[in-house]
Amino acid sequence: MNEALEHAEPLYDFARYLTGSATEADDLLQETYARAVSAIDRFERGSNMKAWLFRILRNAFFDLRRREKNRGPHFELSDDVTVEAELLRGDIEIDRLKNAVAEDIERALLGISEEARTAILLDLEGFSEKEIADVMNCAQGTVKSRLARARASLRAALAEYAR
Amino acid sequence: MTDRHLLDRETDAALARRPRHTPSPELLSRVRARAKSDAKSSRNKPQLARFALGTGVAALALAAAALVHVKVGASDQATERFEAEAVNDHLRILYAEHPLDVPSGGVHQVRPWFEGKVDFAPTHVFEGDDDLPMQGGSVALFQDRKAAAFVYKRKLHLVTLFVMRAQGLAWPTPDKDEGRVRVHFGGDRGFATVSWIDGDLGYVLVSDVDKTELDGIVAKMTR
Lengths: 163, 223
Known about the structure:
Number of helices of chain A: 10
Number of strands of chain B: 8
Structural class of chain A: mainly alpha
Oligomer: heterodimer
Structural class of chain B: alpha+beta
Distance between the termini of chain B: 70 Å
Shape of chain B: elongated
């Protein structure tokens, strides 16, 4: 469990961005470790414990949200938006990204879908595509496209807040 | 046109500026303490998970061995042992493979189930509500006697109410009026314990919900 406890800080950061709430993040972190102890016999030695814990936390988050409505607006990249159209907006977006302050980034992250937010946060934590796929319970081949869409959603959210 | 890679690079640069949230030292301490305690309870699980009738001397010996050591220099060692026992019993339910002997169909199903399994009738048991639904019950061993354990859930937290015969146990001194009874608030290893006596029966509530939630739960339990 000592090794597991080393990951408490990134786990908490992830929990804060998942929930948007310090209180719920506190609860989630405690619940994650409680579940981890309970399931420690099922942890495969030699595999990535950090990824395992992130997966537990995400599942606990889903249990928490199961009966709650989705919060906040979600900015999903429309299927109608073509890559070419996005590139044409690129210069404006570059400027917006460079000028975005920390609070803007946080607000935008909290405004996109949980799935997009999770993909981005796991990538920022340095997980491989395989590990991201394990945590998100998706096919490894879809991770790259999920990340691309997630980044685009984030930029759309920033654009929305900039209006 | 702007290169997609440049866009992604700038996006990642912006993301690197996002606020990083860190857990408070208190939360970390709570997590560490509970994780270590849970790991210890988990190792002993095959022996300590359930105390059914007939386990006798062996069960009592194991229960005694599982008691947390008393704080050095504590003024009320009996109270600390009492609270440590309550938390241990709560943890046994929390981490047992089959924590509930009877799943809940409401208090009117759970409470009658205890007939013949404990030598008293659990009364004044909160039936549960939408915010604090009853999950079920099980027979627990509290120090030297059987207790009826009623398990509730508040969001992701379990709340256990142990009901037992009060006589012969060193109950903590009550220090606060709550409904029709006087209660004692205590705790051990990050878990809160609340105990009171009502007639011949004693009640001990154990949970790790935060203080504001706990006050509301106690008010419901002691009405």
